[in-house]
Amino acid sequence: MLKPSWRRVVLKVGSALIAPDQDGCSERYLRPIAEFIQQCRQLNREVILVSSGSVAAGRHHFQFQHQRVPIALKRAMAAVGQTEMMNFWSRCFDFPCAQVLLTHGDLSDRVRHINVKNTLKRLLDHGVLPIVNENDTIATDELKVGDNDNLAAMVASVVQADALIICSDVNGLYTADPNKDPAAKLIPEVRQITPEIYALAGGASSRVGTGGMRTKIEAAEKATAQGVDTLIVDGHQATTFQCLLAGNNPGTIFYGQKIPLPAKKHWVRHTLRAKGEIWVDDGCVDALCQHGASLLSSGIVRVKGDFAPGDAVIVRCSVSKRSIAKGVSRFSASQLFSIKGQHSEKIASCLGFCPNGSNAVIHRSEMMLLEKL
Length: 373
Ligand SMILES: Nc1ncnc2c1ncn2[C@@H]1O[C@H](COP(=O)(O)OP(=O)(O)O)[C@@H](O)[C@H]1O
Ligand SMILES: N[C@@H](CCC(=O)OP(=O)(O)O)C(=O)O
Description:
The protein is an alpha/beta fold. Helices cover about 35% and strands about 20% of the residues. The strands form two sheets. Strands 3-4-2-1-5-7-8-6 form an eight-stranded mixed beta sheet, sandwiched between helices.
């Protein structure tokens, strides 16, 4: 479904397509995908490829039979598999390819985020195909995104893509995992991602897949919030790509929201990870939810976690215990311990200084109310 309005597309290719037999990269599925990329470019569409498969492609170099691979070995597999995968893609094209390896930290740090954005833009401007993957060789649990569906959605947001196409081993979202339930039915269109949609998702069934359907729905939620149409399609079938080029939907499409979130709020909501919690009283919940106010110290009753100024936190109602909002705290956890419950004018005397010249603990421009209360 290559809409005329889609000028920039992020294409995500899963491990099961890159190395289906875990015996190095296989041409079997990659040729039609490479042709699709070429055709998109001929139609003046910009493509950013997010390619999984470094671990699956590198696995055959290591004598290891068990299904659960220790993390140090996985990193080594990724190191060797990543070069094989890049070589493979490069051989498919007569234009240059660029390897872009990212971790979550590269996207959550504002300066690095802008560097990634500028680099991707330069590559596209010069006709180079960016090929993105997680930097699995160095990524730790804390640093990594963890799956390439979410990574692709974050990349789609960074490059302000119009569409995200997730090529998987299944042709879309079904009412249940079709590998387990033969009666499961394909859902061709999703307009709103609700808890009921999440409830349909099961895990990965292939030996090499990471997130299953859940991470694809998470990716669709991230991308559609910024107005990016998101498709899940079957990358095994060459007909999928003919169908896309003919302007048809071969799988499931999640429609981009008509009113996209502003970029900064999207980044707070969908890229930053919360490092702690600020619990607030009922009056404060009312001010945030009903009046769109900034969070002030007077409404804070409890602070959890160890966070620094500039870190994201979850705001919780101390009565209902529900998560109300996510935002960037302008104060550290230890500073908030000193000023919680105090009126804003007391901040300077409590702390001995006013850290940033502002009284708001979380400014409303850096706070997102959470829809799923
Ligand atoms: N509701 C569902 N609809 C479709 N597939 C589902 C669903 N729930 C779980 N799955 C599983 O998700 C798998 C795709 O995820 P995954 O193996 O991680 O693929 P990839 O490597 O492409 O990221 C499918 O093969 C399927 O078994
Ligand atoms: N970054 C990892 C892949 C992670 C991942 O999400 O895999 P997949 O579910 O196959 O898209 C790798 O290159 O092996």
